[in-house]
Description:
38% helix, 7-stranded mixed β-sheet, 8-stranded mixed β-sheet, alpha/beta
Amino acid sequence: MEIRIGEGASDEEARVIGSALAEHTGTAIEVYVGDGDAPATTAEPPASDDRSAANGAGGSQASTTDGPTEREELLREEIADIEQGGPEKYKDRLDDQGKLFVRDRLDLWFDDGFSFEDGKFANFDSDDQLPADGLLTGAAEFEGRTLHAMANDFTVKAGSMAEKGVEKFLRMQQRALKTGRPVLYLMDSSGGRIDQQTGFFANREGIGKYYYNHSMLSGRVPQICVLYGPCIAGAAYTPVFADFTVMVEGMSAMAIASPRMVEMVTGEEIDLQELGGAQVHAAESGSADLVAEDEEHARELVAQLVTYLPDSSDEKPPRSDSRPPSRSPAGIDSVVPDRPNRGYDMHELIDRVADQGSVLELREQYGPEIVTAFSRIDGRPVGIVANQPAQRAGAIFPDAAEKAAEFIWTCDAYNIPLLYLCDTPGFMAGSDVEKEGILEQGKKMIYATSSATVPKQCVVVRKAYGAGIYAMSGPAYDPESTLALPSGEIAIMGPEAAINAVYRNRLDDIEDDEERAAREAELREEYREDIDAHRMASEVVIDDIVPPSELREELAARFAFYEGIDKSLPDKKHGTIL
């Protein structure tokens, strides 16, 4: 570096100035005096050892080096020790259980783990080996989205929860309320740490506050929970409070009490998978939305799931490029049988309407008489609620109604438009379903449909009998459109039931079997003419009858047109139907 000082400066002054600047800048300094062409002096920076000694000699400045200090190196060693997790013997068991160590799991999900971590030093000075108190929290990048995340470390007291870990969990939830970003829970916890329950169980800011915060976050930001092991008692509530729960086959389980506790209380001997494994919650309780084959598959499912969801209820769900359906819309009419009581798979129709590869069905095994699935139509996320004639003729049973109600409620919370594909004989009747609460669950489905303020399109594919048309967002339920295919029928009940209810005695009076059969067929056709889509369109009950091969285009146009529609509910605190 060259500097020039004023005319008349002595050589000594030039030397002092050059030396001071060289030491300060760490570079060689050439000092020119006045207009001189040659430097009066050249000063070299002192060697690092000389500078350190000089700084230390006076005691007024800390010594400096080009690398980390001993103090920093010690801190890094402490962090590395924490990141090793619990005792090695517990880490060795993870392979046998088919699961990853928690920090390897974070690397799988987020490439380089957390963007930053909170509370890493929790319980650092504990006499026990409790790194991070067995619960990790932080921020992360996932599939282009920034979110909050937590993960239990099963090598630390089986991922159990205690005072410091609970504090970290609560802080993460409370920060999510402020940031409006999604929350991902990677759960692997045996529940509360019973021998340390003082200070976190019943406190105002204890573990009970988890579920208060879950409730406050519900419908505000998406909460997604993935289970990797036994989640017992208090730990089992996080997955059921989450908007979406993914279980891993053969690995995950959740239950209100452990098998040992169940045996103590009830005398029942049962293993954990039979008590609360993935299949139990996928098919019987309905608590599992998706079931993964392994850890990698769980990540793939969540990566697909988030593509339909906004970061918060203030935003619209993300759009994608439009893709043609996997099967031609020209085949829709051939999928739907002419006879109303003949079964078929509703997925055959959905695959001809939705963008290719975009259908993600939730709770497939639970209440299978109704299909609930995310999809895209022309790149726009859409929630599909469809009767499934391949399952018990598409009649609505209590489990199916409950599943549909919760799916509709979730779609509405996150601004995802709804498409109803109606082909149902209505709600199932009989003593069994009455005991199972068909009226209660049916009420919830109708309530959810009534209260949803997102754009709704209803398509009468074939049967729309009884209160089924109400639950499926028929004309009275404020859909943006009620469309029908030419196979559609809307009626209090189907032709067979109607004729039996109204004409049975008169038909029984006809003694000749052939005459009776002919009269019954005639009455059936008269009834069907009265309820078919053309009559409904003529009376403007429905908006239009759509050529089946044009259904996808029609729906895309209508969802696009009504995208920004403003719908509101009556001014009240909230409804009383849950």
